[in-house]
# Entry
Amino acid sequence: MPLTQKHHADPIRAGEPQPYLWKLNLGPQHPATHTTLRIQLKLDGERVIDASPEIGYLHSGFEKLGERLDYNQYVVVTDRMNYVSPISNNVGWHEAVERLMGIEPTPRCKYLRVIAAELSRISDHLVCNAAVGLDTGAFTAFLYAFNPRERICDIFEAMSGARFTSSYTRVGGLNYDITPTAFEMIRKFLRDIPRAVHDVELLLNRNRVFVDRTRGVGALSREEAINRGASGPIARASGVTRDLRKDEPYLAYGDFDFDVCCATEGDCYARYLVRMAEVKESIKIVQQAMDNLPAGPVNVEVGSRAVLPPKDQVWTTIEGLITHFEMVMSNRGFEAPCKEVYAATEAPNGELGFYLVGDGTQTAYRARCRPPSFLHFAMLPHLLRGYRLSDVVAVVGSLNIIAAELDR
Amino acid sequence: MAIELPKGTLITQLDSLVSWCRKNSLWPMPFATACCGIELMATGASTHDLARFGAEVFRFSPRQCDLMIVAGRVVMKMMPVLQRVWLQMHEPKWCIAMGACASTGGVFDTYSVVQGIDRFIPVDVYVPGCPPRPEQLLQAIIDLQEKIQREGTTWCREFSLPERQKLPRALREEV
Amino acid sequence: MTPSRDLTTPTTVDRLRSVFPQASAHPSDDVPRVVVPRDAVRAVLEWLHGPGGFAFLADVTCVDYLHYHGATDRFGLVYLLTNLETNERIIVRTFVNDPAPSVPSVVDLWEAANWLEREVWDLFGIRFEGHPDLRRVVLPPAFESHPLRKDYPLQGLGERHNLPVVRRGEG
# Structure
């Protein structure tokens, strides 16, 4: 019989001495914490009475760094935020910067950003589900899910020059336009990926051990999900029908036909199913974007003083050279207005927002990032109370906590 | 002088034999903190396959490991944990600083990031890159294997040499 | 992008201002924002949480306006709320000053504010009165500064070098 939280309504009154309870420290270096999380558990036998998560083991001052680096340089740092899907962060950051500066990217750029962001969503969801499988004893699925991820890395390498931390976007455009090689790689990948997703599903969907360890575990109700600030697949697994791609269509998401995947159970298994369903929707989006990729330039006009001119212009014309020089010289680059904007995108983990304060110079005065993992990890004690010790890893895994995004 | 040996016998130094065994059966302890940890996982996964170099047995208990791979930046809150894990590992043990952040702090020249773990624990091989490709990590393992073969001793004397006891260079400049 | 709305029905900001005349609307081309005095912020947020229907607290953060030209107050708090029914967003701003800046906590309204407020305390040193567990969240408990303040240097005050050294052969 699966344990439910109701079944184990807290029988211990506060203030009572509880000598039979013992404390267990999980992390910060533990295989199931993925990166650097620490959870202090209070246990009654094998049942979790309370958990107090502690973070900060990877706090690297991203936001302070954002006040020093200019709007293009900081994209390198956003790569390292949610490092399972770096391009989603790049897209989110430059979405905010472009809204601050009032730049509208070209249609081709929007489509390419969508393709890159959705590919990274596929990779993120597969890796997350693979990790949940790994933590609950299904190692084979990990090997199967890492293969498409490797393919996506190769595609990113062809698109941006780096396989992993790609820094793909620029203010008003992209690092490079897509090449025929990369185009062909994505086409080929789209032919193969349904099979790979199917393999992972075969390995996990009805895997007795996996299902027993995830179904009914870490349940989150719809009201709690909203009140505790859950977003993304975790909120959708609890029945919150919110997807920023549909609700506040940014980039070119209004052009595509896709569904918002939801579940109502709110447990680890529902989160797994939502992620797998979203992978399939992302494949649909990438397919549509590839079929309808608009022609034309990928960057906005050089005259807008937002993007660097193309290299052949820099090397052959004096205007190009001067523009390039002015753009990269300190104090002569961007001029962001004295404005404050908030822009949110649907990253694989949830609502990734940037609150930017521009002060007329080329660096942000304040570059706040609203990290989805931070709020998801904060509700961990709520999710764990009443469950068993072995459920902790399944819950932590299914929340897809990325420490670098959590701590920044 | 001539010693009669039975057929099929090979003579070597005991040190060399032990080092040969050690270098081909490294058990890494993945101290994965950030982005590099994902590439570390990719190195262990099927495409790159760390098992080809005899180092695929990732163990999360420091007492079972002899190679610590620090993958990712280490911040001041994490450093005591890292040191504790390092001290829990048995000699002989080696350390690879994977990636720019672990080696030098990388792009994160900020208030909380340790500017290179070699200021606080000993490091044998540094891997450049942000993050390094899996091939680079494989090269680092090969380099470390060479180092073990070259200077390994049965009694781990190489770890008690006086020059090893000196402060790391980076720290001497600063303090 | 704001969803297109019917101009005849009063906006949330209008309704809010009819209840709280001291709240001033600020011009903004995307998310509507209101600035309220520090003493009214709790009442405004309670109203938004209840009758306003803003059930989702997206973010609580802060901006240090120490070197911002033309700024009169030092810290500007930002509450970012979302109404999931109508798909609206609203930003509530309030300003606090040294010494000992503090605002009332909203953890009892939105549980999401718990860690967000702790983070603001940790990085900016703004106290949230009534917060159940106001500890540092990302920095070590012994840390003394609030690093996202503008008068704190990017490289820190040497905290990152102040750690013991383990040498080869030890342990």
Notes: The domain at 15-165 of chain B is CATH 3.40.50.12280 (Rossmann fold).
